[in-house]
Amino acid sequence: xxQYHCLNPISPxxxxxxxxxxxxxxxxxxxxxxxxxxxxxxxxxxxxKTVAVxxxxxxxxxxxxxxxxxxxVVVFNTPGANANGVKEMVIAGMLLASRDIVGGIEWLExxxxxxxxxxxxxxxxxxxxxxxxxxxxxxxIGLGAIGVRVANAAVHLGMEVYGYDPxxxxxxxxxxxxxxxxxxxxxxxxxxxDYITIHVPLMDSTRGMIGRDEIAQMKEGVVLLNFARDLLxxxxxxxxxxxxxxxxxxxxxxxxxxxxxxPNTLVTPHLGAxxxxxxxxxxxxxVQEIMDYLENGNIKNSVNYPNCDAGACVDVGRVTIxxxxxxxxxxxxxxxxxxxxxxxxxxxxxxxxxxxxxxIDVSSPISKEVADTLKNIxxxxxxxxxx
Length: 387
Description:
The chain is of the alpha/beta class. The chain has 14 helices and 16 strands. The radius of gyration is 25 Å and the shape is elongated. The two termini are 14 Å apart. The mean pLDDT is 95.
């Protein structure tokens, strides 16, 4: 029996994927796995019983990745599960920024319902007319699951699309329309594009990536869209550009006092992935990741440990080891098992930065004593007998 705890409401469609041997617990200390959406985990005390955390979404700023890695807790996210919902918001954002639809609606709401309202509307409509997006240049920074979908959709809407991503995956490259210009210099996007949308994770290297220098390169009247993370943009510099008219519109999904009070901003209350379909997809993927890890030891879509998949264990036993990525670890593992008379039938080792993960299938059972010996090796964070 496995127990899981939900820090936020998680879609019943996703939780329904858990079979009978999984039980929801309200006691965090008893959880083998934790599911989370936006709850801040930085101040939470996680018990030694917990071996996995799954974020039903892509961003993981609310999770202490390093601290959990050092406890041997694997953190998963669900890339691509909410991509379509965010893509639709980005397209909607471009349309709202191009045609002053919101302004037109607000003007009509302020009018009294009179018989001549249609004539008044005809006189006022030029104020809200705007322009079409077909034929305009769209620059996409980040061609992950969301960026690729935005790019492909924009091509079908008649836009000339430029994409920048020095780390584009093979899968993303295959999914990208041949009509999209994949460029190697992000400054081309800043200089040439009428619309710019950001789809990169928030890291030290991307924090404030759109600042004064980048804005200075942009076209007069550019539209900037940010449905990734607010801290990717220097919003003080952006607010100045909006007041001066350098930036025509800023469309963002992240409300704060500055953007909410700055003219020419369209701010939505973090609606990007807030669709029933996205929440169901994210929850289902998170549940599948947890089950595969708890039952088989396999890691897919982890943000603090390497992906590692040995399939289902067909041997007598399987042990998994979360450890530092340092020399001489594998030889210590094999010696420990050899000294205990345990034969290794299959072994997989993967690393990611400072952390590594080893899966070992064996042809005889592994005792608790052997597992404890492995755990006592310097640099080992967790040992788990999966089978």
